[in-house]
């Protein structure tokens, strides 16, 4: 069985494992204060062209989303998200557990717009009973989105402009950041650092054993963020394990290469599906594909390949998710394409 249901099924890139072994008996200060974390921070600052940015390392995506959002919001505020946003659909109420509501906006493609943000803000503050409702306090997006779609530079610029006019911090979930960068080359890390108030560079789904790097371009925005990390159980005693992984990922263009590799493999599969006449639920250019397949085709694929069932459209048709990763091989994709051609 070849698995295509997610992008965190493999362990870690060999260069990361080698670096962890090579540094295994080093003695280093704890809690992210070691030289490896410092070098990783410097590499990230350089790639983001954000020399004074704070960079913090946490273990996983849900932990990171919860910590950032709770740190930014006041008690009476909520976070604006797409209805398909990860914090709204796939985190077991982690945000609500901090006492903050997720204010979900409808979306057809997984993205939200500047106009939607302006409207939810106006609807709240124009209300004569505004103080009886949860106040929108920040905006959450992901790149790529949960549906594999990505923000163009124009879309992100407009969204950023609206957020800054309204005083709403813009937070980008970058769990799959490398795949977003590959799908939208015009949206670079430096552009993201310029347009977002806080974001994170995902490692767990892009070649690391685990780990996410939170970047805060303006340190004044969240001056006590390390306290929030500690309070929410995110401050790893052996913090160098995170630093070493990002030290490897962010050096010599490895992170970008891993993202491009997965997106190229997804492109090959996309082309094969399109050639067979299958449609797609979302116009995704990233490493996630959402083809619409009849039951017979799904059953045939399922005998050799694993994938995720996303949505049943009727008694026959359903949307599935096929996901490539940084480690997806040519051989695996060749086998999948050969099977698709027989459907």
Q: What's the alpha carbon Rg, rounded to whole Å? A: 20 Å
Per DSSP, what share of the residues sits in E-state strands of 2 or more residues?
A: 15-25%
| Quaternary status | single chain
How many strand elements? 13
Describe the fold and architecture:
The chain is α/β, with parallel strands linked by helices. The chain folds into two domains: 236 residues, Type I PLP-dependent aspartate aminotransferase-like (Major domain) (Aspartate Aminotransferase, domain 2), CATH 3.40.640.10; 86 residues, Aspartate Aminotransferase, domain 1, CATH 3.90.1150. The chain contains 13 helices and 13 strands. The strands form three sheets. It has a seven-stranded mixed beta sheet with strand order 2-8-7-6-5-3-4, sandwiched between helices. Strands 9, 10, 12 and 13 form a four-stranded antiparallel beta sheet that branches. A two-stranded parallel sheet has the order 1-11. α7 packs across α11. The longest helix is centred in the C-terminal third of the chain and has 22 residues. The mean pLDDT is 97.
Quick structural gist:
The protein is an alpha/beta fold. It contains 13 helices and 13 strands.
């Amino acid at each position: 069985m070849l698995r295509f249901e997610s992008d965190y099924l493999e362990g870690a890139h060999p260069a990361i494992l080698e670096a962890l072994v090579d540094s295994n008996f080093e003695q280093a200060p704890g809690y992210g204060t070691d030289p490896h974390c410092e070098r990783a921070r410097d590499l990230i600052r350089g790639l983001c062209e954000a020399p004074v940015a704070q960079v913090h390392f946490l273990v996983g995506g849900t932990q990171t989303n919860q910590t950032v959002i709770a740190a930014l919001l006041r008690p009476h505020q909520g976070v604006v998200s797409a209805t398909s946003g990860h914090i709204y659909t796939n985190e077991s109420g982690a945000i609500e557990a901090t006492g903050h509501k997720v204010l979900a906006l409808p979306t057809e493609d997984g993205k939200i717009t500047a106009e939607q943000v302006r409207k939810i803000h106006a609807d709240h503050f124009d209300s004569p009973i505004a103080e009886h409702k949860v106040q929108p306090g920040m905006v959450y997006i992901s790149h790529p989105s949960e549906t594999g779609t990505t923000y163009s530079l124009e879309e992100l610029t407009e969204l950023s402009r609206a957020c800054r006019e309204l005083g709403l911090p813009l937070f980008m979930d970058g769990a799959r950041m490398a795949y977003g960068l590959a799908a939208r080359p015009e949206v670079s890390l430096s552009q993201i650092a310029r347009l977002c108030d806080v974001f994170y560079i995902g490692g767990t789904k892009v070649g690391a054993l685990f780990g996410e790097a939170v970047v805060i371009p303006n340190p004044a925005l969240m001056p006590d963020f390390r306290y929030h990390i500690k309070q929410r159980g995110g401050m790893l005693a052996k913090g160098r394990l995170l630093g070493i992984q990002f030290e490897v990922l962010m050096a010599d263009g490895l992170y970008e290469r891993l993202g491009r590799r997965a997106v190229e493999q997804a492109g090959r599969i996309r082309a094969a599906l399109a050639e067979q006449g299958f449609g797609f639920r979302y116009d995704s250019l990233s490493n996630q594909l959402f083809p619409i397949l009849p039951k017979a085709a799904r059953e045939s694929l399922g005998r050799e390949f694993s994938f995720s069932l996303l949505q049943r459209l009727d008694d026959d048709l359903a949307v599935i998710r096929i996901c490539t990763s940084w480690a997806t091989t040519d051989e695996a994709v060749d086998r999948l394409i050969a099977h698709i051609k027989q459907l």
